[in-house]
Amino acid sequence: MFEVNRSVAIIRPRPPFLEWLKQLPGELNDNVTLESLTRDCNALLIPCADDYDAAEEAVLDQYQQLFQAELADWCDDETLWPAPLTLELFQQWFQLEIHSVLSDIVDEPLERAEFVPFELGPDA
Questions:
Q1: Residue 101 contacts residue 55 (beta carbons within 8 Å)
Q2: Is the dihedral of CA 41, 45, 46, 47 positive or negative?
Q3: Distance CA 54, CA 67 (A)
Q4: Are residues 119 and 15 in contact, defined by beta-carbon separation less than 8 angstroms?
Q5: Local structure of residue 123 (DSSP, 8 states)
Q6: Does residue 78 come out as left (phi exceeding 0), alpha (psi in the -120 to 50 range) or beta?
Q7: From the CB of residue 81, how many other CB atoms can be counted at a distance below 10 Å?
Q8: Model's pTM, two decimal places?
Q9: Which of 5, 39, 100, 108 has CB 3.0 to 4.6 Å from 49, enough for a Cys bridge?
Q10: Helix (H, G, I), strand (E, B), or coil: what is residue 36?
Q11: In the structure, what pLDDT confidence band is assigned to residue 119 with cuts at 50, 70 and 90?
Q12: For the segment 5-27, what is each residue's pLDDT rounded down to a tens digit?
């Protein structure tokens, strides 16, 4: 087991996000519940978090990109997204958790691939 020189931020959906999903056109799978959404959340590797507040601030500095990515995972029609995508709205829709220690329990080397950003319109 190895300790990794990163911390982890988890973006956990809150009820307003689920309510937005339910009002989107089309049928939402009945299996999509707040419990199911919070069971498998997006996790971010962030710089080592010796200070919780500083780590939280570093993540929230990127809230707009993170908000867009969360919305785009479910709906690529930006006209159906809430507007404007404010920090206050992000914090109402998502709970941010910071975990300071990340351990690697896999013997295989860690692989990385370049992140391909979403093609969002000019107003996003």
A1: no
A2: positive
A3: 20
A4: no
A5: T
A6: alpha
A7: 20
A8: 0.82
A9: 100
A10: helix
A11: low
A12: 899 999 999 999 999 999 999 87
Phi and psi at residue 112, in whole multiples of 5°?
-130, 145
Continuous H helices in 28-121: 34-39, 52-60, 63-72, 87-93
Residue 8 has φ and ψ, to the nearest 5°, of -125, 135
Q: Which two tokens stand for residue 117?
A: 């950003």
The tokens for 88 are 């206050």
Dihedral angle, C-alpha 66, 68, 72, 77, nearest 10 °: 180
In whole angstroms, what is the distance from residue 63 CA to residue 86 CA?
A: 8
**Do 47 and 99 form a contact (C-beta atoms < 8 A)?**
no
